[in-house]
Amino acid sequence: MMRELEVARQAAKVGGGILAGYFRQGIEMRTKQDCDFVSDADVESERAIIDVIRSAFPDHAILGEEGQANDAAEVDTNAESLWVIDPLDGTTNFAHDIPHFAVSIGFYRHGLPVLGVIFNPVRDDWFHAVRGEGAYANGSRVHVAEHASLSESLVGVGFYYDRGTMMEATLASIRDLFQQKIHGIRRFGTASLDLCQVGCGQFGAFFEYELSPWDFAAGRLFVEEAGGRVTNCRGAALPLAKSSVLASNEKLHDAVLEIVNGNLPALDWD
After folding, report:
1. Whether pLDDT at 32 is above 60
2. Which of 135, 173, 208, 259 is 20 to 30 A off residue 157, Cα-Cα?
3. CB neighbours of 190 closer than 8 A, spacing ≥ 6?
């Protein structure tokens, strides 16, 4: 996977450079839907990332959030070689001048994640994982936390844009987690980096009730290669499609799953 890793890092660096430039200069954001933003930065970053990948691997399939390569519905997620791109994860942070966002690039073979690169271009923080070779943060190998009890742990959470049933379910799970005497809840607003915080041992667990595949394509492998476990919030295998996500250090997984599954409402796509 050395060639793919080299290309992923190059693509992330190019896309991240575009984001950093816009971040420093300021940019006008546009609304996709309530509280969901897009900008020229997202679109230009994705286009640049795709150009780097296609110059190296012209026959590989590409799935990106902004649809610069293909319509998501047309992409075969079980393709022999598939790149899954989020050109700007943490758009709301970006829009509010908070330097906590990332480029996320995952590489899959026949639906199996084999490579992930996540890059925060403002902090110059690099995270990568290759299947069977471990997870690395800024060049140092990392591992999930050893905590076996929720009362020893900090938990990360994400909120989907929904302000109704999904928000209420998330708040209910937060309440139930606090009743288990967790050290606290953190909501940083960038799922790819949240997953890296699980892999680095900072969060004992992270959950969010609705994410798109580009949000977790790279981060799930980072957690797994760091010794953790990732499923949906029902406890099933994580698909390369819209899904709920629960990531943990493995030891806490069942305890958190009982809570998040118990509060998760019925969903049309679940």
Report:
1. no
2. 135
3. 89, 90, 93, 100, 101, 102
Question: SS3 for 240?
Answer: coil
Q: What is the pLDDT of residue 25?
A: 86
Domain holding 179: CATH number? 3.40.190.80
Q: Is the pTM of this model over 0.85?
A: yes
**Is residue 32 assigned to a domain?**
yes
Q: What is the pLDDT of residue 95?
A: 87
What burial class does residue 226 get, using C-beta atoms within 10 Å of its C-beta: 0-12 exposed, 13-18 middle, 19+ buried?
buried
223 HSE (CA, 13 A, CB side): 31
Which structural domain, as residue segments, surrounds residue 57?
A: 2-142
Q: Give the containing element (helix H, strand E) for 228.
A: none
| CA end-to-end distance (rounded Å), the chain | 33
Same domain for 63 and 171, yes or no, is no
Distances in Å between the Cα of 227 and the Cα atoms of 39, 141, 204, 213, 222 are: 36, 11, 12, 21, 9
Do 184 and 119 sit in the same domain of this protein? Answer: no
Q: Are residues 104 and 185 in the same domain?
A: no
With CA atoms as reference, report the closest residue to 50 among 24, 37, 73, 68: 68
To which residue do tokens 């992409």 refer?
A: 75
Nearest in space to 23 (alpha carbons), one of 125, 127, 119, 96: 96
Domain boundary among 142, 159, 183: 142
pLDDT greater than 90 at residue 169: yes
Number of domains within the chain? 2
Assess whether 216 and 258 both reside in one domain.
yes
Q: Answer for the pair 242, 212: CB distance below 8 angstroms, yes or no.
A: yes
Give the CA distances from residue 140 to residues 121, 134, 182, 240, 252, in Å, rounded to whole numbers and listed in that order: 18, 10, 28, 28, 24
Q: For residue 163, give the amino acid letter.
A: R
